[in-house]
Amino acid sequence: MQQYSYLPGVQVATVDNGLAAISTPHANSIIVLGTAAQGPSAQPYFVSSTATANSVFGQSGSLIRGMNEVATYSDNVFLYRIGTTAGGLNGIGETLPTIGTISYSGNGLNNLSAYGTPEVYETIYIEMTSVGGTGPDEFEYRLGPTGATGPSGGIPITGNLQAIGNTGISIQFASTQGHTLDDIWSFTVVPNAYPGINFTLANVQSNIGTTTSVWYGGNGVLYIWSNGNLIYANDTVSSPNVVINSGQAIVSGYSLGGATLGAQSGPNAKTLAGALTLVQASQTSVSLPNVVPTYVAPVTGIGLTSRQIYNAIAEALDVISIFNVQEVYAPDALLDNPNVAYYVASSPATVQNNPVLNPNALDWLQTLVDNEGNKTYHWASESTNSAGTSVSPATFVSATDRISQGYHEVNFGYLLARYASAQSASQGGCLAFIGCNGPQGYDLLSIRNWIGFLPTYNPSTEIFSDNQVVFGAPTSPGKGLLGTAYLVGTTSGSLNPLCADAANGYRLPGFFQNEVNIEGEYDGGADLDINGNPIDIGAYLHVAGDWALLTNGYGTYIGNIAGLVAGLTSTLDEKVAITNQPVQSITQLYHSSLTQQDELTEAKINVLKFKGNGVAPALLHDMTAANATSDYIFVLRQRIKFLVANLLFTIGDSFIGQSSTDGLQLTALQTALAAQATNLQKNGYISYWNTTVTATPADQKIGHASIYAKFSPANELVQLDATIGIGAGSTT
Fold first, then answer.
1. Going by C-beta distance under 8 Å and a sequence separation of 6 or more, which residues neighbour residue 653?
2. Which of 192, 382, 606, 660 is the most exposed place for a label (fewest CB within 10 A)?
3. Closest alpha carbon to 620 in 612, 609, 634
4. pLDDT tens for each residue of 315-365
């Protein structure tokens, strides 16, 4: 189409091949928790375009890398940026409170005391002027942030502020120049009418101090620009009014006075050209009682230690607990992260687990919750907590002493499994995926040491389930991936003596829910389900230990395969396991032996299986981190259980709020459930189904009913045993 460069009017150009409906995601939803140098934080971000997400969050940190890994397969990805603290400017237009003289009379006292209102201030601006009278004790004085200095001609004095019960503030003044204070000064504290305006920026990035600008008129009118764009204005003084709130700045507080910021007259007034950057605003010079605004630098989350990452993931999981998601993956979370639980002072080989020497080693953790539900974390070896408050490092004489002080053994695997289990109880089903540390190199020796070997067990303590050995008490520890104690157990000699189970002589494998006595953390005991069995939350965790050469929208790099496995799992039909599924966009860096693969499957750690030159490698197995006593040792069974749970949620929800002559429409409910279960059975997801809906007379009075569902999931075909022989035959 001809385009006219100068002709006034409207020009229309048409483009082809754009008639495409916005697609509906077909994969299960995945949320990726990771770090980034920019972009929105503390809220889920749906990835409608990976290119756009790359631009929004940038390439720094783990968030975009994790996104590209899961997005290799999944089209239903949410991002959650962790580890950030918003930055901004505090105290715009703030003024200090004042104390004014009311009356005086002479009494010959050398010290002066009086009482103000019950409000206590850290810094007070004071003007004292004699009301009548003569003499050298007539003065004006300011007690402010810069110290005690009287004006020219005045009398320097010292001041002492102290709270007197609930009656107010006592301020005592004494002459420093030998003058007799023969006046009684009584005064009142004038409440601070201008506490100041504060704002933080939703986009947490390191350069906001120079890329964000403010203008303040001294009358409550505030303008904020970010990267040259006006994002906030509350100007109802100008004509026409300028009122903008893009949501990029979170503004709180108020002021109708205080020092101005930026050009107040001329063409630059109320413009970006006349505004000050946040750093400039914090460096302005003001006179009392006005206060200089304070610049609050943001924390972007880049460069956090593993302990800080743990805190950030824990906080994020609390926030998204009400967000319906079916898979969770955190690239920075590793199951075998160094941990104080495996620090043995007498063993130099465990020094990486010493949290005093290694800031990336997880320590004993105390979690405190205030009255508003906000959590504060303190690692035992650190002198500050997550709120920045000074805290004395904690010491313990025993495991019992440690737990009594509220410090617990923590690890990333338990953290994610606990979240996925809780999500499954309220949202119908959730799986967590976690990786492991990689090898030091990809030569044969490094790979052998990295994979390692399993512990040995005492046969006399073996526990059996369905005629299969589950585990026994370890008699010697494993090593490498195959020695990951949370999955295979270990001996007490490999445990920190402060571990809750060190006195047992061994650690048994498994992650079990525990919310009764130890605040829901890993160490100590296990909650039981209604059948009296331990609640094995390892069933909600899949461990992918392998590292390979990955190629995706982030680039080509060596990384863990857990994100790829999560993405692939989200796309599969629930009756299809990830066992033997080919993995695209990946190149193996080594080939493990069949013996190693057999042991890795026993340890429930997934790796890649070589399928031949020019053929995509496949995933080894479909195991969860549950113990063999659990019904849910396979991801496939979990996903089918989630189907059943969602059936109960969906069908049951349609009956909530309906009137009934029998407490609830029990027969109709049971019929509806059976009909949907039959569809699952016909389509090969389950082989058996039984439902019972009950309501006691007491339940009926309050509108309650109970559903008991039993089902048999489709079983994964894991192994085929074939026998080949040569038989004698007849010839003619």
1. none
2. 660
3. 609
4. 999 999 888 899 999 999 999 999 999 999 999 999 999 999 999 999 999
Residue 113 in contact with residue 170, Cβ under 8 Å?
A: yes
Distance from chain centroid for Cα 444 = 38
The CA-based dihedral angle spanning residues 19, 25, 30, 36, taken in that order and rounded to the nearest 10 degrees: 10
pLDDT value for 689: 81
711 and 688 in contact (C-beta within 8 Å)?
yes
Q: What is the DSSP string of 198-265?
A: EEEESB--TTHHHHEEEEE-SSS-EEEEETTEEEEEEE-SSSS-EEEE-SSEEEEEE-SSS--BS--S
Segment 575-595 shows an average pLDDT of 94
Q: Looking at the whole model, is its pTM more than 0.85?
A: no
Residue 159: pLDDT over 70: no
CA distance 363 to 306: 10
Cβ proximity of 234 and 217 under 8 Å: no
| Among 716, 717, 707, 651, residue whose Cα is nearest residue 679 | 651
> Pairing mode, if any, of strands 375-379 and 407-408?
unpaired
Token representation of residue 9: 């009017």
Other Cβ atoms within 10 Å of 132 Cβ, number: 9
Which residue from 263, 262, 226 is spatially nearest to 246, judged by alpha carbons?
226
Task: Please report, for residues 149, 337, 478, 605, the alpha-carbon distance to residue 484 in angstroms, rounded to integers and kept in the order given.
Answer: 66, 10, 7, 10
**pLDDT of residue 463 exceeding 60:** no
- DSSP labels for 595-613? HHHHHHHHTTEE-EE---T
Domain ranges in the chain are 88-92+195-296, 98-190
R_g of the chain computed on alpha carbons: 34
The half-sphere exposure of 162 on its side-chain side, counting CA atoms within 13 A, is 6
What one-letter code names the amino acid at 271? T
Q: Read off φ and ψ for residue 159, nearest 5 degrees.
A: -125, 150
**DSSP H or E segment with residue 68:** helix 63-70
Higher per-residue pLDDT: 178 or 83: 83
8-state DSSP, 497: T
pLDDT bin (cut points 50, 70, 90) of residue 112 is very low
Angle (nearest 5°) at CA 67 between 72 and 301: 160
| Contact by Cβ (8 Å): 710, 690 | yes
Residue 445 CA from chain centroid, whole number: 37
Greater pLDDT, 489 or 174: 489
Question: For residue 669, what are the contacts with CB-CB under 8 A and spacing of at least 6?
Answer: 651, 652, 655, 693, 705, 707
Distance CA 349, CA 56 (A): 43
DSSP assignment of 403-436 equals HHTTEE---HHHHHHHHHHHHHHHHS--EEEEE-
Beta bridge partners of 407: 366
Closest by CA position to 409, among listed 331, 523, 498: 523
CB atoms within 10 A of CB 254: 13
Per the CB < 8 A criterion, the answer to whether 199 and 250 are in contact is yes
Span 454-458, average pLDDT? 91
